[in-house]
Amino acid sequence: MWVVCHRVQPHRDTRVVKYAATALVDCSLLPNERLAQLREEVSPEMPTSSRIFINATMQWAYPPVSLPKEEFMQKALELWQKEGLPTLKLKEPWWGRDLGYWSETDETNARRAVCGEYYQTGKIQAQMRRPTSGELRE
């Protein structure tokens, strides 16, 4: 569902295909009473059914998955195992991956954060700050 919510524009990435139903077992076609009636008919007129096709592929670069890099997650796993904690049942992805949209500035800011120098990034960003419309009136 995350992929559908974050990679799909319904007007662009979906198609609905209609066709005559091939069986009368799908409860979403009609109320159960009507389905039962159609099943008893010799040559019932089959109701219209449909399917939705969703293209949720990455069509361009995206920011990384919001998890720490592999090196940090591997270190955390080593510490976990060293402490003799229960075996983890890891599910993919279990570390962040670069999906193509990660600038050198982003990488530099991340390195600063890891080194505890996040305040330097804050100073740089404060210099780039533009006043809001409310601040302009004051």
The secondary-structure class comes to mainly alpha
Secondary-structure element string: HHEHEHHHH
Domain module tally: 2
N-end to C-end Cα span:
45 Å
Proportion of beta-strand residues: 5-15%
Name the shape in a single word: elongated
Counting DSSP E segments of at least 2 residues, the number of strands comes to 2
Annotation field: number of helices: 7
Instruction: Supply Rg.
Output: 27 Å
Largest sheet: 2 strands, antiparallel
Give me the side-by-side strand order of the main sheet: 1-2
Mean pLDDT, rounded to whole units?
Answer: 89
Question: What would you note in describing this structure?
Answer:
With 138 residues, this protein is mainly alpha-helical. The protein has 2 domains: 2-54, no CATH class; 70-137, no CATH class. The protein is built from 7 helices and 2 strands. The protein has helices at 2-7, 10-13, 32-40, 70-82, 104-114, 118-128, 133-137, and strands at 14-20, 48-54. Strands 1-2 form a two-stranded antiparallel sheet. 0% of the residues are buried. The mean pLDDT is 89.
Short descriptors:
two-stranded antiparallel ribbon; 138 residues; mainly alpha; 7 helices; single chain; 2 strands
Short description:
The chain is mainly alpha-helical.
What topology emerges from the helices and strands here?
Layout: H1 2-7, H2 10-13, E1 14-20, H3 32-40, E2 48-54, H4 70-82, H5 104-114, H6 118-128, H7 133-137
Antiparallel strand pairs: 1-2
